Amino acid sequence: MLDVLSREEMQALEDAARTERDKLMIRLMADTGMRVGELLGLRTTDLMERDRNHYIHIAGRSQGGGAKGDQSRLVPIPRMWRRFQRYVERGRPKDANSDRIFLSVRRDRRTGEHEPLTKSGVEQMVRNVAELAGIRKRTYPHMLRHSYATWALNRGMNPIMLAQVGLIHEIGPT
Fold this sequence. Notes:
Elements: H1 7-16, H2 20-32, H3 36-41, E1 47-50, E2 53-58, E3 73-76, H4 81-91, E4 103-107, E5 114-116, H5 119-132, H6 141-154, H7 159-164, H8 167-171
Helix pairs in contact: 1-2, 1-5, 2-6
């Protein structure tokens, strides 16, 4: 049996995060099923609006993104659009030269540039925030992906849509 977080635990996780960057990363993974590599590959130009609908473009590997395989896709973010846009415009470090959305607060000693956020940094952040939230389960970023898939299936999402982003194969039959 796969361990997942309830919607209440996901909310507690977001609430316990100390910065808007961390809150947004948790919410994105929880509400989209996004992989950590996809999250870290997001660029400011990946926020898209089409026909009054709002999306994040997840680039495939050949486009410099973190999508497994080479599958680019648009992920709807209707409830998070304004918050995400506000973070990109005002929440990122003002002096960042990178177009990556999520950057480390640390700077490279030689260049003074903000370092890219790493997978291990996100994993550590999720563990620490889960501890602050009082979640006793071993919590890690991929658990948010599994939780999203389980929640989506239970709400009646078409399994074929989940399979297109690789979630069905990861969680197996429910």
